[in-house]
Amino acid sequence: MIKLHNIEKYYNNKIIKTFVLRNINMEIAEGEFVSIMGPSGAGKTTLLNIIGMLDSASEGEYYFYDEPVHKMNEKKLSQLHKSYIGFVFQQYHLIDELTVYENLETPLLYQKVKTNDRKGRVAETLDKFNMVAKKDLFPNQLSGGQQQLVAIARAIIAQPKLILADEPTGNLHSDQGKEIMEILKALNKQGTTIVQVTHSETNAEYGNRIIHLKDGWIEK
Length: 220
Fold this sequence. Notes:
By secondary structure, the protein is of the alpha/beta class. It contains seven helices and ten strands.
């Protein structure tokens, strides 16, 4: 599904290159649950953003379903991202001006899902996450755990092949965090590929493989 070959990310200031990622070579098969660990500043979020096509590598090759991502223009990248990838952020990234229902509907509007199908999918997702009673509330009326549940629901409603989660339980207490991880585990069992960045050894163990990053390098 994902192949990264000699991926590097750096910033130039005319005199020196500051590297964030160095010589990243990795493959992720469809259906895997991969955890990426490492200290702050190791390059974990940058790597996740490159996989998610929110950022591009300075050098190297990235293949997604054998398609050369490193050669694509912005329009093609955006189409691929919307069609295949769901993102879950530590900071939720919900749209404050939209209700829970409208936040869930947004990805389907981008995909131009027909009205009846859209309504059906939102209703089904609200039911699945026990949020029917909260559908007309705004994000600031929800607890942190509830906001993260909405963020995950929004990430999966478009039925992505790949979910990328950046510290998905970082702002939650342990019970809420466990609930989020169990949802991701269940999605993985249903066939969704998941890549998560985490500091938590407990959360990392939900994956079937752990990749350790340090100073931009994959530790062998």
